[in-house]
Structure formats: structure tokens, C-alpha cells
Fold this sequence. Notes:
Layout: E1 8-12, H1 17-28, E2 32-37, H2 40-54, E3 58-62, H3 68-82, E4 87-90, E5 97-98, H4 105-133, E6 136-141, E7 154-155, H5 156-174, E8 179-186, H6 192-200, H7 204-213, H8 223-234, E9 245-248
Parallel strand pairs: 1-2, 1-4, 2-3, 4-6, 6-8, 8-9
Antiparallel strand pairs: 5-7
Helix pairs in contact: 1-2, 1-8, 3-4, 4-5, 6-7
Amino acid sequence: xxxxxxxTAIVTGAGRGIGEAIARRFSQEGxxxxxxxxxxxxxxxxxxxxxxxxxxxxxxxETDVTxxxxxxxxxxxxxxxxxxVDILVNNAGIAVFNEPLDCTVDDxxxxxxxxxxxxxxxxxxxxxxxxxxxxxxxxxxISNHAFTVIKATFPYPVAKHALLGLxxxxxxxxxxxxxxxxxxxxxxxxxxxxxxxxxxxGDAAKARAETxxxxxxxxxxxxxxxxxxxxxxxxxxxxxxxxxNIVIDGGxxxxxxx
Length: 258
């Protein structure tokens, strides 16, 4: 399908994992894609790989979502290259896990600066242009931590709960301006970050098997599955969906005691 033909999409944190999968799917759907990534190594590689695969235009811009000047530069380069911004996917994020009283001021600030404030910075940068063209889609990649909590993961779920609130607030505020703001909350996803976590246990195969056994479907989420939902939300087909949070966690969050 070519549901995004002629559209321009910015995907933050798109150098690998879920972000790269979304950027790739958007390009397959016909969009011009901006890889807004902090790491030049992974960002350039993703942009080149996607462009080679799809033949569509890609642009890598080194972007630190915690720095408003960096985000503004990314937006300016996007507009200069493609003319408009039709879609924003706020995917960049970090996991900061502590017990609450062990969370330092720096831990709190680091988590909030990326997972919440960085998203808002990107949103408020692209929104004026979307309002002017009376059309746009913003998709926030959150987590099932946005509505459930695991002990000793503080302050990550605090940021994610707040990000769900931001999604709903912006969704309602700009629904009558042609802008659809929604969210996707993946569960445990099979990315390089997950694999690195498994390796750090000393027995990656065992750690993976134990994690997969906890999933009702018996496996981890695939990045491509998140990307498929993002493609729908980015398209004109989903413009009556406002402020929603699509959960893709294999049934983990609806399970009670076992």
C-alpha cells in the first residue's frame, strides 16, 4: 500500500529498533522520512538502508530531543528539504529504573527530559505548521508502563503516565484543526536493547526464554508490528481516532493473577 504517498514524516530515535521499523514502514508506504536520531552512526545507516530498499527520499538529522535548538534545527532542515511536516512520531526514549527513594535528582531529570519534555518540545515545534495546513498526525510511542506499574522502575512509569496525558490533551485541543494525536503502547519488544539486556544476565538464551514465557502469546513483540499500527495512525484512514492509546503487549496488561 501507499497510504502515505507524498507525506513527510519525522521519526525520532529512528536509528534502530521500533523507530527504525516505523521509519522503514512509512517509507514503504510512500512517505519522505526524516531519521531524527542522536547517534550519527545508527542514524546514517538507517537512512541509507531505508532509501536503498524503498527508493524513497530519506534524511538523517542528528537530533537531541532534550535540546530545543537541536529540535528546531531538525525541523528547519526537514522543511527546507521536503516543504512540510505531515507526521511526527515521538519514539525517542530512555528507561531509568530505580526504587523511588533511590532515584536521584539527576535520574529524575534525565528521564523526564527525554521521555516527556523531549516529546513536548517536538510537538510544539511541528504543531504550528500542521495547524497552518489544517492537517497532521502525531504519534507518541509510550509503553504499557503508561497505565500499569512494575515495582523498582521509578520514575519511568511516571513519565509514561504523563505522556499519555499529554497525548490526550493535545488530541482534544487540536482535533478541530485537522490534527490527530494518538499513542501506541508496546509491551516487551524484540529490539537490540532487549537483546543487550539478555546478554548482561550472563545467559542470554535463558533470560530470553524466561521473558518469552511470561508473555501470553509466548514471544516478544516485533518492531514491525508496532510499525504497522503507526502506519495506520499516520494515514488519513485514522483521522477520526483522537487521543487514543493502542496497546500492543500480547495481552500482558489485561492478565490478572496466574
